[in-house]
């Protein structure tokens, strides 16, 4: 089986932090990295910190870890395992990425950002290490085109579901140049070391599960607008009544992140050839309005529901 002792997760948002915790629990040392903040918080200013202070530079990943430990009590989040996660920022930790057996990209769902990161990674990547993207549905091949052949052979999609530690499914998406051996080794590793149910998917927009899931969520929103149902009514019938108390429509949107959901739906609409398909994946104005107000769901404290 492939040996993965050290991993680097780039992007410490909803998914990156959860994937890091999951790997740490399985015995892997993890560097959890995010951007360097561009502005100080009011608290940092009051404490006389500058943007150069390490606590500020590492703040995004460190805060993500603190949030995880608050929201995932033991035994799901075990402090003994958490010490295997080192939070930091990509700029200061850049050279150490060469030590990673597996680099997982979990940054914002935008092709140009992912391509720019991968192109930069190529200079530090140790040949042989696996590089993967947690994209919800952006073309793996379009990302692979931003790097040369050697890295492309070791690059694939490893799509975890939210929350990564509780959702057993991982979709593996090879690009055209991904070595078959890498796909087989990662499938084995994810099944045996993480206990996942792995499905190898084709590189189609949103792959398999999100293609269906996004369609269902958008169809629900459109029916709701047509019939005048409330958020509570929709969640009552799509959640508890179906025996899924935590995965009702709007609870799910808040958990996923409304901005991420808009990118994921746009990804299918933007690549659709059939006008009917483009219409089915069109995002309603209410969602884009909420995102422009900064109502992104649980991660911003306010989405369809307010976090108390
Ligand atoms: P998020 O918005 O919660 O977090 C993204 C993080 O990436 C942010 O903390 C941001 O600061 C950081 N970032 C952006 N550019 C960066 C860069 N160049 N270098 C380092 N860090 C950078 O997003 P998320 O929900 O965690 O999604 C991450 C990825 O996982 C996306 O591709 C998304 O489509 C996918 N995904 C999301 C879900 C979900 O339910 N949210 C589920 C499966 C897959």
CATH class of the largest domain: Alpha Beta
Number of helical regions: 15
- Spatial gap, N to C terminus: 44 Å
- The parts where pLDDT drops under 50 for at least 5 residues are none
Mean of all residue-level pLDDT scores: 94
Organism: Paenibacillus hodogayensis
Protein name: 3-hydroxyacyl-CoA dehydrogenase NAD-binding domain-containing protein
Domain 3-hydroxyacyl-CoA dehydrogenase NAD binding: 7-204
Domain 3-hydroxyacyl-CoA dehydrogenase C-terminal: 207-306
How would you describe this structure in keywords?
alpha/beta, N-(1-d-carboxylethyl)-l-norvaline Dehydrogenase, domain 2, binds nicotinamide-adenine-dinucleotide, Rossmann fold, 44% helix, 13% strand, 3-hydroxyacyl-CoA dehydrogenase NAD-binding domain-containing protein, globular
Structure at a glance:
With 308 residues, this protein is an alpha/beta fold.
Describe this structure in words.
By secondary structure, the chain is of the alpha/beta class. The protein folds into 2 domains: 6-200, Rossmann fold (3-Layer(aba) Sandwich), CATH 3.40.50.720; 209-300, N-(1-d-carboxylethyl)-l-norvaline Dehydrogenase, domain 2 (Orthogonal Bundle). It has helices at 14-25, 42-46, 54-57, 59-71, 79-82, 111-121, 140-144, 149-153, 180-194, 209-227, 231-238, 249-256, 258-271, 275-280, 285-292; strands at residues 6-10, 29-34, 85-89, 102-105, 130-133, 155-160, 169-174, 197-200. Strands 3-2-1-4-5-6-7-8 form an 8-stranded mixed beta sheet, with helices on both faces. The longest helix is centred in the last third of the chain and has 19 residues, at 209-227. The termini are far apart. The mean pLDDT is 94. The protein binds nicotinamide-adenine-dinucleotide (NAD). Residues 10-16, 34-35, 60, 90, 106-109, 113, 117, 134-136, 161-162, 256-257, 260, 264, 299 line the site of nicotinamide-adenine-dinucleotide (NAD). This is 3-hydroxyacyl-CoA dehydrogenase NAD-binding domain-containing protein. Belongs to the 3-hydroxyacyl-CoA dehydrogenase family. Residues 207-306 form the 3-hydroxyacyl-CoA dehydrogenase C-terminal domain. Residues 7-204 form the 3-hydroxyacyl-CoA dehydrogenase NAD binding domain.
């Amino acid at each position: 089986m492939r040996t993965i002792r050290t991993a680097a997760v780039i992007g410490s948002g909803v998914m990156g932090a959860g994937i890091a915790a999951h790997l740490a629990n399985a015995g892997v040392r993890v560097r959890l990295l995010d951007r360097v903040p561009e502005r100080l918080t009011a608290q940092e200013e009051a404490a006389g910190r500058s943007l150069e202070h390490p606590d500020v530079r590492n703040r995004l990943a460190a805060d993500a870890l603190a949030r995880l430990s608050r929201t995932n009590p033991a035994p799901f989040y075990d402090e003994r395992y958490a010490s295997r996660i080192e939070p930091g920022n990509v700029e200061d930790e850049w050279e150490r990425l060469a030590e990673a057996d597996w680099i997982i990209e979990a940054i914002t769902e935008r092709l140009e950002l992912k391509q720019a990161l991968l192109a930069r990674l190529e200079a530090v990547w140790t040949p042989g290490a696996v590089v993967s993207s947690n994209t919800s549905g952006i073309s793996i091949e379009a990302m692979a085109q931003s790097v040369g052949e050697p890295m492309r052979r070791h690059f694939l999609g490893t799509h975890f579901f939210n929350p990564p530690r509780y959702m057993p499914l991982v979709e593996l998406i090879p690009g055209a140049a991904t070595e078959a051996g890498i796909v087989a080794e990662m499938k084995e590793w994810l099944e045996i070391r993480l206990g996942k149910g792995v499905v190898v998917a084709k590189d189609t927009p949103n792959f398999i599960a999100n293609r269906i899931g996004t369609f269902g969520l958008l169809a629900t929103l459109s029916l709701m607008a047509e019939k005048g149902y409330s958020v509570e009514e929709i969640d009552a019938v799509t959640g508890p009544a179906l025996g899924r108390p935590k995965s009702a429509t709007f609870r799910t949107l808040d958990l996923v992140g409304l901005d991420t959901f808009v990118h994921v739906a746009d990804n299918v609409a933007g690549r659709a050839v059939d006008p009917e398909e483009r219409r089915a994946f069109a995002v309603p104005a209410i969602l884009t309005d909420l995102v422009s107000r900064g109502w992104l769901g649980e991660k911003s404290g306010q989405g369809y529901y307010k976090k108390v």
